[in-house]
Amino acid sequence: MLVKTFGSALFGIDAITITIEVNIDKGIQFFLVGLPDSAVKESQQRIEAALTNKGFKYPRQKVVINMAPADIRKEGSSYDLPIAIGIMAASGQIEATRLDKFIIMGELSLDGGLKPIKGALPIAIKALQEGFKGMIVPLENAREAAVVSEIEVYGAENIKEVVDFLNGDGNLERALIDTESDFLSSFSRYEFDFSDVKGQENIKRALEIAAAGGHNAILIGPPGSGKTMLAKRLPSILPPLSLEESLETTKIHSVAGMLGKNTSLVSVRPFRSPHHTISDAGLVGGGTYPQPGEISLAHHGVLFLDELPEFKRSVLEVMRQPMEDRVVTISRARLSVDFPASFMLIAAMNPCPCGYYNHPDQECVCSPGIVQKYLNKISGPLMDRIDLHVEVVPVPFKDLAERGTGELSQAIRQRVMKARKIQEQRFSENQDVHSNAQMSSKMLQKYCDISDAGRSLLKNAMERLSLSARAYDRILKVSRTIADLEESADIKTEHLAEAINYRSLDRETWGS
After folding, report:
1. Do the Cβ atoms of 285 and 291 come closer than 8 Å?
2. Which CATH code for domain 194-436?
């Protein structure tokens, strides 16, 4: 008897429907075809043990299973459940009339229990597009898949519950969530707040500008000056995720298996902080069967690279193209996968190997030229993509000893959101541009016009401070953001002056 069940394969952050054809005939052999990997091939042993331990019969006949389309690689253990259901239906233990209405996915334990899978959300989206009535998934994935409210999502704890449901002998409870209220209930929860920071007002100002315009920033200062502490608080002043951004971010985390149990949506902006020993593939994504890397997991959020010069140069260089295009393409001989990668880069570093160059109290012990050599570990093209260079100095004791709290992140966020609203209106005709940091050269000419006095200031600054030519566009973008924070239609000379101050690492005299 021939029976068909339906599952899904992940391709990037999207899903492809897989038809699982099960045929049982005379004989004793087991055949599984359709380009399965080792985890799929091993499903026979898991299925046999699960069915036996739940009181069902495993057919002692010739079983042929084809997973179509046969030219797409099937990987992982999440096909255990649809294969097992197909085998039981083909052997007459399940009523097969409802199988074509459901996408069925889940990994089987030997005792018949169901373990969670990756990518439940993109699978649910594909099921809706393909016209399926619903999905049957492990209970822990039910809330995630139920974000797609137009289809029926049923969560099961074991294979017996699935069998009873398909036979009409038992009822699985449909997973229902109010996506909007579930999202709004936790979209502003942040562990860290800027009110905890003592002093460092100039650094807070720089990070506010970075958040308002979506600019990349680098914090450079001695050990213990608060670089990491400040960076961790940046997400708390970014505008809240929109529901559309939340869905896209959740898809990436779902494919990577990074969602927690019984989670529906990623409701706060991601903050990813990989260690400096990370590989190229770990940062941008990759592998034999491409998976999203840290830059994609930071999509719509912050990627924080602490101790930037300690990262391998090759790892940093592969970020250059994704930082500009906001998407990373992983190409292999048989496939090419795109992962979104629209993130804010915040980096931190010491000014020299000993850490005390330009320190107000401690003397740097590095020999001449060592400071510049240390800075040269970061290439010019990468530094060119970082808009704000912020020098961080240690907080004096009188500031540390203050009992009062600083300005709340919520207050800073309100100013950031006002500036983002101005940019949203400015770029309403450009769907791919959402913030000042994403402006093209043509858009700079249109939106960043400066007065003769401002042009003279910028010319003198570039000549007297030995600023490189590559700093020109960045200064204009940052000054546009500063003007937006003050709700000024024009870029004034004071806006330009502050933006110029944030290009310290472009000065030829810095570190020499």
Report:
1. yes
2. 3.40.50.300
